[in-house]
Amino acid sequence: MTIEINLLPWREQRRERRSKRFQLALMAMVVVGLAGGAGMTYYYQQALDVQQQRNAHITAQSARLDRDIRSIREYEAEIERLEAQIAVFRRLQEGRPQTVHVFNQLTASLEEGVHYTELTRQGDQLRLTGLAENNRQVSDQLRALGAATAFDVPSLSEVEADEGQARRRFSLSVPQRMPGQPLAEEDES
């Protein structure tokens, strides 16, 4: 019978077992650490992707809103332009009977022997150029225009005799009275 003697010390075996356990635990910790790090990296990458998608959505919506604002401003400018045109059309429409009234008053106030050669209108001011046989007819014409309901007080610019003819060439300007506007004499009193 032989006696078996373990030549390896029991402490050495225990140290090896502990070393293997430590290495296994260390490997497990490294694996868990790497898995945790990869998981955190994946989580933060997903969060970053979601935030980038949100930012892209906000940027796209902001660009769409900028286009909408630009188109609204264009519409507002178009509306202002159309309102200005409508105002011009209304003024012209309101002025239609007034123009007819002015011409009716011009012909009604025309004195015998007086002829108009030119009529220009700037705003509410009429400038008349004409011919008369004498100065009295020019004066009568001024009084007749002043008495007309469509005009305020006329002012004579010039009177000159045509060379070689007995006629007088005259120029005058007369402000047009707007409907409902009082006479110039009534304003002074």
Automatic annotation (TrEMBL):
<feature type="transmembrane region" description="Helical">
    <location>
        <begin position="24"/>
        <end position="44"/>
    </location>
</feature>
<keyword id="KW-0812">Transmembrane</keyword>
<dbReference type="InterPro" id="IPR052534">
    <property type="entry name" value="Extracell_DNA_Util/SecSys_Comp"/>
</dbReference>
<feature type="region of interest" description="Disordered">
    <location>
        <begin position="162"/>
        <end position="189"/>
    </location>
</feature>
<dbReference type="InterPro" id="IPR007813">
    <property type="entry name" value="PilN"/>
</dbReference>
<keyword id="KW-0175">Coiled coil</keyword>
<protein>
    <submittedName>
        <fullName>PilN domain-containing protein</fullName>
    </submittedName>
</protein>
<keyword id="KW-0472">Membrane</keyword>
<feature type="coiled-coil region">
    <location>
        <begin position="65"/>
        <end position="92"/>
    </location>
</feature>
<dbReference type="GO" id="GO:0043107">
    <property type="term" value="P:type IV pilus-dependent motility"/>
</dbReference>
<dbReference type="GO" id="GO:0043683">
    <property type="term" value="P:type IV pilus assembly"/>
</dbReference>
<keyword id="KW-1133">Transmembrane helix</keyword>
<dbReference type="Pfam" id="PF05137">
    <property type="entry name" value="PilN"/>
</dbReference>
